[in-house]
Task: inverse folding
């Protein structure tokens, strides 16, 4: 599901809209 949360991106944590995920 789409939700704004801290995701691991390019070796750093950033608040981004992650794609469809469990």
Result:
């Amino acid at each position: 599901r789409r939700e704004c949360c801290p995701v691991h991106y390019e070796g750093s944590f950033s608040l981004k809209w992650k794609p469809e995920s469990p």
Notes: The chain has a mean pLDDT of 60. The CA atoms of residues 2 and 19 lie 6 Å apart. The first strand starts at residue 4 and ends at 9.
